Amino acid sequence: MILALGACIAALLAAVGGGFLRGSLQRTALCLLLGVSGLLAIVAGMAGLLENPATLTLPLGLPWLPMHVRIDALASFFLLVIGALLTPVAVYSQGYLRHERRLAAMGVFLPLFVLGMFGVVLADDAFSFMLFWELMSVSSYFLVTFEHEQPENRKAGFIYLLMAHLAGLLILGSFAVLYAAGGSFEFVSMRNAELTPFWASVAFLLAALGFGTKAGVAPMHGWLPDAHPVAPSNVSALMSGIMLKVAIFGFVRLAWDLIGTANFQWWWGVLVLAAGSSSAVFGVLFALQQHDLKRLLAYHSIENVGIILIGLGLSMLLAHFGHPLLAALGLIAGLYHTINHALFKGLLFMGAGAVLHASGTRDMESMGGLIHRMPATSLFFLVASISISALPPFNGFVSEWLTFQTALMAPQLGAALLTAIVPFSAAMLALAGALAAACFVKVFGVVFLGHARSEAVAGAREVDGWMKLGMAIPALCCLLLGLLPVLFVPLMDAIPRALLDVSLAGHVHAHGWLWLSPVDVSRASYSAPVALAGMLAIGGLAFWWLHPKGTTVRRGPIWSCGTPNLNARMQYNATSFSQPLRRIFGGVLQPDEHVHMEYPAHKLLTKKVRHVLHVADPAVRHLHRPIGDFVLNLARIVQQEHQRGIHAYLAWTFATVLLLLAVFA
Amino acid sequence: MSSLPLQIAQALLLVLLAPVAAGFVASVKARLQNRHGPGLLQPWRNLAKLFAKQVVLAENASWIFRFAPYVVFTATVMAASCVPALLVDTPLSLTADVIALVSLLALARFFLALAGMDIGTAFGGMGASREMTFSALAEPALLMSVFVLSLGAHSTNLTTMIQHTLNTPIMLQPSLAFALAAMLMIALAENGRIPVDNPTTHLELTMVHEAMILEYSGRHLALMEWASMIKLTLFATLIIDLFMPWGMVAGPDAAGLLLALVAWVLKIFGLLLALSLAETYLAKLRLFEVPEFLSMAFVIAFLGLLSHYMLEVNA
Fold first, then answer.
1. What are phi and psi of A35, to 5 degrees?
2. Cβ atoms B29, B276 nearer than 8 A
3. With contact defined as beta carbons under 8 Å apart, do B307 and B175 qualify?
4. Residue A282's domain spans which residues?
């Protein structure tokens, strides 16, 4: 508990340091304090997962409502997630911010953003939850608009702020329902409140919509691909890596903990499952069509939040139908993917930041061949790409495998149609996973392999030691979490023990530390250490056998089919790589694609060919723009009222007084 | 763990037999086309020749290009050593269940596609793009057909699934027919056979697998070719394990093992005979008809799933 508060205080100190110091001291103080804060959060999270819950009332806040904080298994796990990414990002920022002149805004709002996330996780009453939630949203707005000279950054920031507040409003509504039932803002009384099925569903729907908007679940995701790429890369890493996870935390806290598993309805699980599956597939399909590196990664966050929700939705469904053990497995699968995604997505954004730093561009169409210029960055990026593509022996595979196992073990649930939804969502997960692999072959292939497509990229230089170290830590964690899930799952076991009253630990490593088996080894098992050891042995043998002394490798020119001058523009690029998928999924993507041919004399004598492609996000067109227009129109009406004379003001005052009298008298 | 050496021997057998199996397909196809054919051992002779040759690398090849053949080869061999071929209960099959097995092959494919992108020629990129597209569409169908089987067996562990198939009367499970049909279609796509891809073509615009390994030579090319042969035999073994495991033995006794070996070899060659016939009589699909072929496989597998729920569980 004290450690967790220490983490908060370190973040607060970092805000003070970031605001008042100047020069390189400012950067060092900011990064050092954030790093310390992250380390404290890791230790507090570990300790909290092993110990019993602790509560504390802080003499802060409103006089009749002091702040309640509580560190239980769920909070500890998310503290661990935040710390696990915050520490390497702090190290990375020491190098990344070196050339940044105006650090004041970053220095204040970055620590406040982190503090907000700690506060949300630790809060034990609705009031402090919402307070820290808003702190997180508002300070991240200033980080999104950090480079506010660009008009599109301001626009992205505005939509972000709007959606964040819409989400906040919905969450507030959910808390209001629970407050009405429990009679207090404290989570203890909400937990013990009796809810009728109707009000439970209202609270759940409001929470699901609110947290879903903040987590970027399709179709409420429209703000995300605009907001995440324009922030500085260290902030993008934190936003994609952990801020979305804080929304997942809020959802689990409200649904599992406050509303309670006893109140679950069957259609809640179906809803979450459907939202998860569609987010996963939708996110990755749109990611494949992007050529802005950071925007592509932002779409992948939508996909991964979808994967987390598939695990959570399965858990809800199974909990409702009375299979707590399998529900625990689904919950663990979703939460395991949460920490995995925090690590590899943080790493990917840091890698994208390094590329941006070195080449000055986010456009993949002008990159290429960076593996020769930036060997370390490309290695770390490769690790993250394999992890996010859910390939063994890295961590993304473990959580997707656990999700598959949960879906497979789901027994008959009521109607046959309901049961068939479960494997169908698993098939969507398989599709999303395989498309993610395709997407990261494209990203790694276009950015790091082949020839450089522009002068700036051809002259790129490797980043400094701080940034390399900041990327090395999560890369190592990705491997460790992939190799040793058997040690990590029992650590997470405190969460299902608290929320579902079942323990999974005995089942998971019943067959020794080598074999991960979700429920029983005869049902399924997976051993990353054995697989990796086997592959190293086979690969080593093959290498030793094929490399007798004195073998040489000759280098020769590329085979060009006899064409004399190959140039870099003849390579497959990001747009051409995804062309088959664009055509196959044309119904979903609705690409606006034209080819203009210029031929002055005859069709066969083409002079110039221009290919125009635009893939617009339907969520923005059909959901976000109408909401934005509505708010702006409302503001315009209010603005007109503002400009009236004193009579109108008096009339409004009179009407308000009458209304108040009518309500309260 | 006493059967561990036996399992290694079995994996070795699969790996060494794979080129012969590829030679068998080539020979049968040649006979069907009224040619003599190169003989069963020709793939082995090709591999031996390639292993002895010097490697020529493209001038801008990175370490990914040199590393990829080893990853592709080892991941495929690792997957092959987790599949039971003769013994039902093998210690290493605990390492990877069906899903992990498929993912090991996906790891191999990931590096194969990266190697295709590494040189920066249009062929490599084209092959990588198509390979990843088709495999992404094949993945849900493959998983769905595995689902049909594992719902019956309550497991994705290969040993348990084989035991379940051995102990259940086959006639009572119409869903298996759907799953088998889907699985055969996926196996064609995963191994790049006609009608999805043609392994013998070097016609520029239709290549998928060949386009990615165009720049390889010497031992690197040998490893890549060998891996794709192993993959073919591996898929055949997987289909045998899941749908027709009769003849496999529970414990290591000599007579039973011999019988299992004969049964396995016969079944493999039976499946490959069917493949050769299909490759002779079918034409390659146009590129954008492949997605329809694969979604057909998905629909068939999903029908199998529904028929499992409707006919087998409630009955």
1. -65, -45
2. yes
3. yes
4. 264-483
Which residues are within 8 A (CB) of A55 and not within 5 positions of it... i.e. 6 or more apart?
A: A68, A69, A70, A71, A124
Question: Does some domain include residue A587?
Answer: no
Paired with A68 in beta bridges are A57
Grade residue A511 by pLDDT with cuts at 50, 70 and 90. low
Instruction: Assess contact for A543 and B219: CB atoms under 8 A.
Output: no
Dig out the tokens for B169 from the structure: 């009367």
- A606 by Cβ neighbours in 10 Å (0-12 / 13-18 / 19+) ranks as exposed
Whether residue A535 lies inside any domain: the answer is no
Cross-chain residue pair B106–A431, CB shorter than 8 Å? no
- Other beta carbons less than 10 A from residue A215's beta carbon: 28
Residue of B nearest to A534 (CA): B78
Residues of A in contact with B309 (CB under 8 A): 416, 419-420
- The pLDDT confidence band at residue A156, using thresholds 50, 70 and 90, is confident
pTM over 0.90: yes
B136, closest residue in chain A (CA to CA): A434
In Å, how far is B202's CA from the nearest CA of chain A?
12
Q: Which among A28, A27, A34 has a CA at the least distance from the CA of A11?
A: A34
Chosen domain end from A451, A483, A515: A483
The answer to whether the CB atoms of B136 and A581 lie below 8 A apart is yes
Q: Are A568 and A455 in contact (CB under 8 A)?
A: no
Across the interface, do B125 and A576 touch by the CB < 8 Å criterion? yes
Rg (C-alpha) for chain A, rounded Å, is: 26
Question: Looking at the partner chain, which of A419, A556, A583 has a beta carbon nearest the beta carbon of B309?
Answer: A419
Annotated domain spans of chain B: 4-313
A524, A517 contact by CB (below 8 A): yes
Task: Give the pLDDT band of residue A423 (cuts 50, 70, 90).
Answer: confident
User: Using the beta-carbon criterion (under 8 Å), do B302 and A557 form an inter-chain contact?
Assistant: no
Paired with A474 in beta bridges are none
DSSP states of A548-567: -TT--EEEEPPP-TT-S---
Q: End of a domain among A483, A499, A521?
A: A483
- Measure the CA–CA gap between A335 and A355, rounded to whole angstroms: 30
- Alpha-carbon distance values, A6 to A14, A115, B60 (Å): 12, 11, 51
Q: What secondary structure letter does DSSP report for A614?
A: E
Nearest Cα neighbor of A273 from A416, A397, A427 is A427
Contact A337, A436 (CB under 8 A): no
For B54, list phi and psi in degrees, rounded to 5.
-75, 150
Residues of A in contact with B63 (CB under 8 A): 371
Are the beta carbons of B139 and A438 separated by less than 8 Å?
Answer: no
Contact present, A583 and B289 (Cβ < 8 Å): no
Give the separation between CA A479 and CA A10, rounded to whole angstroms.
29
Phi, psi of B32 (to 5 degrees): -65, -25
Q: Can you name the residues that pair with B96 across neighbouring β-strands?
A: A526
Residue in B with minimal Cα distance to A370: B62
**Integer Cα distance of A344 and A473 in angstroms:** 11
Contacts of A378 (CB under 8 A, 6+ apart): A370, A371, A444, A448
Cα dihedral sign, A276-A278-A279-A285: positive
Q: Which residues of B touch A535 (CB under 8 A)?
A: 74-75, 78
pLDDT per position as a tens digit, B127-165: 999 999 999 999 999 999 988 888 888 888 888 888 888
Residue A153 lies in a domain: no
pLDDT given at position A517: 81
Q: Is residue A233 part of a domain?
A: no
The secondary structure element, H or E, covering residue A612 is strand A608-614
